[in-house]
Automatic annotation (TrEMBL):
Keywords from the UniProt entry: Ribonucleoprotein, Ribosomal protein, RNA-binding, rRNA-binding
Name of the protein in its database record: Small ribosomal subunit protein uS17
Organism, as annotated: Sphingomonas mollis
Matching Gene3D superfamilies: Nucleic acid-binding proteins (2.40.50.140)
Subunit description: Part of the 30S ribosomal subunit.
Amino acid sequence: MPKRVLTGLIVSDKGDKTVVVNVERKVKHPLYGKIIRRSKKYHAHDEANEFKAGETVRIEETAPISKLKTWKVVDRVNTHATPERVDVDA
């Protein structure tokens, strides 16, 4: 069975080798049909303490590491990529 991979925003990096990642999903309300946001926080393992609060990361499900940690940070998602500059000769 493949491991689940989620994308979310780091809301806390205060723990040693641990980050808290807020994952948001959009669901349709069963009665009214409006799209609403649901969020959940996951504790994820960050071995080198390299990720900071405010970054968007991908987390992957793993075997339990501690009481709360069953996820590990895979990599950083580049949300602030700047497009390459194209010079136009006039």
